[in-house]
Amino acid sequence: MKARSGTLTFVLGGVSPAFASVGEAEGFQGVFTTVFICYCAIVVVAQTIAAIRSLIGSGSTKGAVPPAESQKT
Fold first, then answer.
1. Nearest to 25 by CA among 14, 33, 17
2. 3-state DSSP: the chain helix, strand, coil percent, rounded to 5?
3. How far apart are the first and last CA of the chain?
4. Under the phi-then-psi rule, with left for phi > 0, alpha for psi from -120 to 50, and beta for the rest, what region is 48?
5. Which residue has better confidence, 71 or 46?
6. How many angstroms separate the CA atoms of 67 and 55, rounded?
7. Dist. CA 2–CA 20, nearest whole Å
8. Cα dist. 6→3, 11, 13, 14, 60 in Å?
9. Mapping DSSP to helix (H, G, I), strand (E, B) and coil, where does residue 13 land?
10. H or E segment at 7?
11. CA 54, CA 46: separation in Å to the nearest integer?
């Protein structure tokens, strides 16, 4: 059991410095990432609304007169 905990400590001890960062992030990466994700969200919402409107429009044929019957007199 002691060997396993030692191995686990060694493995996790070697990995932990990879998550450390010194100082603040440089550049405008956060701004550009946020703008890109917001733009993608706008596109997804617009396409979802268009798909829902298309599904609702194709299902609402109730009360419509077929073209052949509307020309008969």
1. 33
2. 75, 0, 25
3. 94
4. alpha
5. 46
6. 22
7. 28
8. 5, 9, 10, 12, 68
9. helix
10. helix 2-15
11. 12
